[in-house]
Amino acid sequence: MAEEIGELDITDELIAERRAEEPGQTPEDMTPWQRPITAFIDVLNLWAGRITCFLLIPLIIAMVFEVVSRKLFAVFTDYGYNELAISIGLGPTLWVYDTSRMLGGVLFMAAAGYALMRGVHIRADFLYRNWTPKTQATVDAALYLLLYFPAMLFFFWSALDFTMDAFGWKGWGQPLGIWERASDSTWAPVLGPARAAMPIGALLLFLQGFPELFRAFHQMGKEREAKFVKILPVYFIVLAVIFVSVFYPNATPIDDWWASLTSSAGIFDFSKPTIGLFMLAAMLFSIFVGFPISFTLIFLAFTFGSWGAGSALTFYLMTLQTNSVMLDDQLVAVPLFIFMGIMMEQAGLMERLFNAVQLMMSRTRGALYIAVLFVSMIFAAATGIVGASVTILGIMAAKTMNKSGYDVRLAAGTITAGGTLGILIPPSIMLIVMGPVLEVPVTDLFRAAIVPGILLAVLYMVYAIGRCMINPNLGPILPEDEQPETSPYYLLEVIGVMASIVVLTYLLGAGAAGTLAFIPLGGLILPILWLGFMFFVYSWTRKNKPGGFYFSDLWYEFFMGLVPPTVLIAFALGSILAGWATPAEAAACGAFGAIVLSFAYRKLTALGFYDAMIKTLEISVLIMFLVAASNFFGAVFSNLGTPKFLTELLLSMDLSTAAMLIFVMALVFLLGWPLEWVPIVLIIVPILVPLLVSLNVNLTWFAILVAVNLQTAWLSPPVALSAYFLKGVVPEWDLKDIYFGMMQFMVIQVIGLALIFMLPGFALWLPEWLSPAGAQPFLSYVGYGSN
């Protein structure tokens, strides 16, 4: 049986520096004057995070209310009760759209300082992790002074000015003007209160820089710290002078002096595209140094944008891009799907399902491989977080695999490969983020990812079972004491259960499509009646055992482990694919359903609920703040004209489109070793978009290629984090064996990537089949050129 799962932190796959000590806790040997400052700011940001995370509750309530109100209005109208529906306030709302996106924006922006305090802002630590603690601390301290404080100070002041404009601020002594309202909605709410989260978050980030700097001082040792402390007064004077010269250029002669010096010397006299190339090189260098990526991007965008386009335009782009991310209605789905996955994990549904599947297949060779891959598909659709999937699958399966004599390499490969499906199978967080980057509807990306996800899972399963057929010792039948007790008619049990689930699936789909509307609320009532009938038959056969036949205990476990999460995922994902709900609305309903499931399984506690909210906040800030920073970086980079320059340069190489795409895929694969998917999707992919558009590449197909490619990078030694997640929960497995196991499935992954590349119909057929126009023949799809 699977080992019981304890407390897991599923955020670590994107976090390189998570802090172990409690907020406000300071080392006793830290410099005395630094300790109270560190403790106070830590606690300030701690409470900012604790308060902000509760915004998830009204966010979920508002969006669920919108969906329910709209659906009930449609039902009442279908049966001629339109006036009654209107009289009780049912129907589409005016306020939920704006309320939800504002809450989503405040959620990540106001807690940005909390995320830094907790150590969850992502950094590429490929090189950083190999340095000594003193070297890490010295580099951190230098970069906080060089990059962080200027960037956050400029961010705060620009955001404050941008927010005050929303309140009608015209200057000291001037009367307030008209408050700015949203121009892209019918409700048109005032923007000032929500936009205020931008300067507040920037200020909390600026303040949190001091505890981070002081911790670096402490870690580097007193001798090095003394040198840094000596220059602090001079540093802050210089920073103040730069600040004044940038925002109040007439107050100092520095701006004129600098312009005169650079124009006469010609040192910085470069074209805008060339400045963009310098910016790109500086970005790659700075990222690999290991400083948190978001702050690096903000500083570089300020610096090179001011150099090439002027500070006024650069600051405008920063506030505009951050505000755009804060009000993006598609990105609201990110925290909601994350929360849904964490709540489902807390409900313990995956281990229950795994136990049932392994017992169901106990008389089959390679049963545990099948169980791992089956559960991984369900869990991938529930959370989309690779670290969580690999960790939980390892805990559930490894002990039983060892006891049953399974091959370690094949077992490790199955677990790590199955865990990576979360990056692709909807509702994938990566696809939600990639949609706005490529300007492709997230709904289309979800539809396009389903067939490739199933394809890869089938390839994994065929390989694992095929290996067991060739060499039965790789996956022996489970020992008799591990096999469940069943009736003499086990095959009839299997047929009965599977047929009942097929009928239930049909009823759920038909109900969602409205074909059961021949009775009021038929889409809800008939599936419930069928569930009741199934339970009656199960109970009756167990009591009476007609002819010795009955349904054994494992089917109850299988049903209770499979059906609730599957129904929840099917409704959330199905409503998106069918176009009945936006991704954010479906995510909110899924999050609410996960809460209900946790309550029904008696796993919902106040502490667990709060823990889920705070983990959701941390991961959301990690992703969303990087989205805002990379959008700012990308806007400056694009304004400099460098993407167009690079596109023309690559097109001049006179390569075929296929060769160019292979080159791009190789680049993404190589970058997938040292970098997580977040910076690749948000920084590298936007640079490639102009080239893709020039080559007339189908961006939906390209997005799936990138997703599968990055999934392959998760299985590619020596950097693949999946190996370390698995090693952490199964320490008795040698890392070399885990690597060999992963490499087997990496080859399968490459085969899957090649199939999707050569046959774009794997990604493009289903989106068109679900559209009103219908699908073309599968083999007629192409990824570039006319389609």
SSE arrangement:
Elements: H1 34-53, H2 56-78, H3 82-87, H4 96-109, H5 112-118, H6 133-166, H7 192-195, H8 197-220, H9 222-247, H10 254-265, H11 272-289, H12 293-309, H13 311-326, H14 333-346, H15 349-360, H16 367-382, H17 386-403, H18 408-420, H19 429-438, H20 442-470, H21 490-513, H22 522-544, H23 553-577, H24 583-600, H25 606-639, H26 642-651, H27 657-671, H28 677-694, H29 699-713, H30 721-729, H31 735-758, H32 761-769
Helix pairs in contact: 1-5, 1-8, 1-25, 2-4, 2-24, 5-8, 5-25, 6-8, 6-9, 6-12, 6-13, 11-12, 11-26, 12-13, 12-25, 13-25, 14-24, 14-25, 15-16, 15-17, 15-23, 16-17, 16-18, 16-20, 17-18, 17-30, 18-31, 19-28, 19-29, 20-29, 20-31, 20-32, 21-22, 21-23, 23-24, 25-28, 26-28, 27-29, 29-31, 30-31
Helices, by number, come to 32
Integer tally of domains: 3
For the terminal residues, how far apart are their CA atoms? 51 Å
The average pLDDT value, as a whole number, equals: 83
Q: Helix/strand-derived class?
A: mainly alpha
List its traits.
787 residues; 3 domains; globular
In short:
It is built from 32 helices and no strands.
Structural commentary:
The protein is an all-alpha fold and 787 residues long. Residues 1-17 have low confidence and may be disordered. The chain has 3 domains: 41-326, no CATH class; 346-410 and 442-599, no CATH class; 618-780, no CATH class. The chain is built from 32 helices and no strands. It starts with 33 loop residues before the first helix and ends in an 18-residue tail after the last helix. The chain has helices at residues 34-53, 56-78, 82-87, 96-109, 112-118, 133-166, 192-195, 197-220, 222-247, 254-265, 272-289, 293-309, 311-326, 333-346, 349-360, 367-382, 386-403, 408-420, 429-438, 442-470, 490-513, 522-544, 553-577, 583-600, 606-639, 642-651, 657-671, 677-694, 699-713, 721-729, 735-758, 761-769. Helix content is 71%, strand content 0%.
